[in-house]
């Protein structure tokens, strides 16, 4: 369940994030929705590692193998005798390997990027067209039933994200909306609790 | 989307038509959002409904393309003899066009990638046009080998798949390397263009209605611009930029190998791949400048494509022009110094028979750009830059022609020396290719933001002013 607050400037959006964190929500629950990128930490901190680079590398490797199969493998399967030339020639094989490796790496980069972003989004998520016009959205993910999913194993929810974990989802939502309004939100869009 | 709908969609945003609880109704018209709105309006102005002039232009371009198709059909039904090709000149205007368009395609993505990787802030308004240019140029270029084939209906023999003919494409042929490289470049450049478009599609989605909104929503895939999306997007853009540069270099190197791996005098040279790559960048940079000028005028983007952009692109063109001159000098000097009879014969034939073309080429690609672009005032003059950029591409087309035709005309066997002049069919197809490119670009500009909105706005968002000593100086916030 997500609650989205719309702010007219970056300062009030940043104030909201700080207030939400102080109240007990975690950084991982909060994200910003903007039409231009801001440096990490200006609004929220996203300490993610990027796995799609490994997918790109794997794609490149798979492409190199596929290119080798295409140039050398098929030359071997369908030999074309040309004078004294070798059936499998190193130079053309290397060129085809390179090209196909790059193709696979590029496609894998795109595919990995979308996978990591979670796009295409199949369900409707809170959004406000004002964001496209320069407003800032602060989006809070509230876990159903006050479940503190971000706690380390063996750590009590209260120790992990404070009193918030003990509140129900609806109570968390109401609290978050109060904070957003207090920080100067233009409007707040909230998903209903399931 | 009509202009009325455009404004209505803005009003909707102000009044708010969502399922939110309105506790306070405040206006969104702050200086910041007003500025953002203006940038959005300006940069998305190309998406407004077409005017009569646009339709007339599209009609004219469509007519030229139709004429080219008719000429090609004539060639299909009558055979290759309707072209000017003959023995020994088997490659003519079609391959000239192919090399020229591959060259043009070279620079768009490459310039965009290099500027992206070097984080040059002035790149932002240029990126989209350059990337789109690459996609359309390489598409046009890819048509030429198919047109040149003869018995064009058998083009699928080049596609590797098990078939009853028992034939398999021979990957030892440089032409197959070409086909592979061009396919990779078309796919790579298209994905690179789409990647850059992604955040702008989300902006366009929110500012449109009807079928356009559906199209943008589909292509934007639910992009919201979360911090995580932006973070992944930036890293993916950088990786894509790094991946696409070697592909671009390889494509034109492979086109050069089409020539260099043969033993034809004038072609069999180790300088060909770098020389081709430099020539490609020269023509590509010039084409980007031409497009920038056209877009600036057509969509009234004087505020975004400023003299500074032309100044910087002019410096780039100057450097590439100097490099091209150096490469050309090295090639000619080696031939002249060695004075190998057949090599010298080709050069003498070329400089004797095509003197005018040779002089135009040297003037357009070397002398004029080097002299004019040394001066800041000329680099910042839109008129001068337009003339120079057009001349460079005229010069580059001639250069491609002078590489191909003289070498084939006077090959190793004097008893089959000949000459070549293009037929009306070849000229028509080449003109249609040019019209087709302009048409594709015009259509693209009508359906997609032709300037990278998010990139331009990112710069605006990061722009500020800091006080240093007694003065306030402009600053741009950068990440470590």
Structure description:
The complex is a heterodimer of chains A (194) and B (480). With 194 residues, chain A is of the alpha+beta class. Chain A is 45% helix and 10% strand. Chain A has helices spanning 10-23, 52-77, 90-117, 157-161, 169-182; strands at residues 2-7, 30-33, 136-141, 187-190. In chain B, 70% of the residues lie in helices and 2% in strands. Chain B has 16 helices and 2 strands. In chain B, β1 and β2 form a beta hairpin. By secondary structure, chain B is an all-alpha fold. The relative contact order of chain B is 0.15. In chain B, α5 packs antiparallel against α6 (174-206). At the A-B interface, β2, α2, α3 and β4 of A face α1, α2, α6, α8 and α16 of B.
Describe the SSE topology.
The complex is a heterodimer of chains A (194) and B (480).
Chain A: E1 2-7, H1 10-23, E2 30-33, H2 52-77, H3 90-117, E3 136-141, H4 157-161, H5 169-182, E4 187-190
Antiparallel strand pairs in A: 1-3, 1-4, 2-3
Helix pairs in contact in A: 2-3
Chain B: H1 3-15, H2 31-43, H3 52-78, H4 93-117, H5 127-148, H6 174-206, H7 210-220, H8 227-260, H9 272-298, H10 307-338, H11 341-353, H12 355-372, H13 376-379, H14 382-409, H15 424-447, H16 453-462, E1 463-468, E2 471-476
Antiparallel strand pairs in B: 1-2
Helix pairs in contact in B: 3-15, 4-5, 4-8, 4-9, 4-14, 5-6, 5-15, 6-7, 6-8, 8-9, 9-10, 9-14, 10-12, 11-14, 12-14
């Amino acid at each position: 369940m997500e609650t989205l607050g719309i702010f007219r400037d970056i300062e009030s959006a940043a104030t909201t994030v700080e207030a939400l964190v102080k109240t007990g929500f975690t950084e991982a629950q909060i994200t910003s929705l903007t039409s231009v990128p801001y440096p990490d930490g200006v609004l929220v901190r996203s300490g993610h590692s990027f796995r799609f680079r490994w997918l790109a590398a794997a794609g490149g490797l798979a492409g190199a193998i596929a290119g080798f199969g295409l140039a050398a493998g098929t030359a071997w399967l369908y030999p074309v005798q040309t004078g004294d030339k070798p059936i499998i020639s190193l130079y053309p094989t290397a060129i085809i390997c390179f090209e196909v490796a790059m193709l696979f790496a590029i496609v894998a980069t795109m595919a990995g990027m979308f996978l990591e972003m979670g796009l295409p989004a199949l369900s409707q998520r809170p959004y406000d067209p004002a964001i496209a016009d320069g407003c800032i959205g602060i989006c809070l993910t509230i876990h159903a039933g006050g479940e503190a999913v971000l706690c380390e194993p063996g750590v009590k929810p209260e120790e992990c994200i404070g009193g918030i974990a003990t509140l129900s989802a609806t109570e968390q939502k109401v609290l978050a909306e109060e904070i957003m309004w207090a920080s100067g939100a233009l409007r707040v869009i909230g998903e209903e609790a399931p | 989307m009509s202009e009325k709908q455009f404004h209505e969609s803005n009003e909707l945003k102000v009044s708010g038509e969502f399922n939110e609880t309105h506790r306070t109704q405040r206006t969104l018209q702050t200086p910041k959002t007003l500025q953002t709105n203006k940038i959005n309006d300006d940069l998305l102005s190309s998406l407004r409904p077409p005017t009569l002039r646009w339709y007339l232009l599209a009609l004219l371009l469509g007519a030229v393309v139709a004429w080219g198709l008719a000429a090609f059909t004539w060639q299909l039904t009558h055979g290759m003899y309707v072209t000017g090709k003959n023995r020994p000149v088997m490659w003519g205007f079609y391959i000239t066009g192919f090399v020229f368009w591959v060259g043009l395609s070279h620079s768009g993505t490459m310039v965009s990638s290099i500027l992206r990787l070097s984080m040059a802030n002035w790149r932002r308004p240029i990126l989209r046009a350059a990337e789109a240019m690459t996609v359309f140029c390489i598409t046009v270029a890819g048509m030429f080998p198919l047109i040149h084939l003869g018995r064009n209906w058998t083009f699928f023999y080049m596609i590797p798949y098990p078939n009853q003919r028992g034939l398999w494409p021979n990957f030892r042929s440089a032409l197959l390397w070409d086909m592979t490289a061009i396919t990779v470049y078309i796919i790579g450049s298209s994905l690179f263009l789409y990647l850059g478009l992604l955040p702008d599609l989300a902006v366009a989605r929110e500012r449109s209605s009807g079928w356009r909104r559906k199209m943008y929503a589909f292509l934007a895939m639910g992009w919201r611009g979360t911090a995580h999306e932006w973070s992944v997007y930036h890293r993916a853009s950088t990786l894509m930029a790094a991946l696409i540069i070697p592909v671009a270099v390889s494509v034109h190197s492979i086109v050069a190998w089409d020539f260099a791996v043969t033993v034809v005098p004038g072609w069999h040279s180790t300088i060909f791949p770098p020389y081709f790559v430099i020539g490609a960048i020269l023509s590509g940079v010039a084409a980007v400048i031409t497009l920038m000028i056209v877009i600036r005028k057509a969509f009234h983007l004087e505020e975004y494509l400023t003299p500074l952009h032309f100044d910087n692109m002019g410096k780039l063109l100057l450097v590439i022009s100097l490099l091209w001159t150096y490469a050309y000098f090295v090639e000619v000097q080696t031939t002249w110094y060695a004075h190998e009879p057949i090599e010298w014969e080709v050069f003498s034939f070329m400089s004797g028979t095509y003197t005018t073309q040779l002089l135009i080429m040297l003037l357009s690609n070397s002398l004029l750009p080097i002299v004019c672009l040394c001066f800041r005032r000329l680099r910042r003059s839109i008129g001068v830059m337009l003339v120079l950029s057009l001349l460079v591409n005229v010069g580059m087309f001639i250069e491609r022609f002078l590489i191909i035709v003289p070498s084939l005309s006077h090959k190793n066997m004097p008893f089959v020396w000949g000459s070549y002049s293009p037929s009306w069919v070849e000229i028509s197809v080449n003109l249609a290719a040019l019209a087709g490119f302009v048409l594709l670009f015009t259509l693209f500009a009508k359906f997609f933001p032709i300037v990278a909105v998010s990139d331009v706005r990112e710069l605006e968002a990061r722009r500020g002013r800091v006080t240093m000593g007694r003065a306030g100086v402009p600053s741009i916030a950068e990440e470590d």
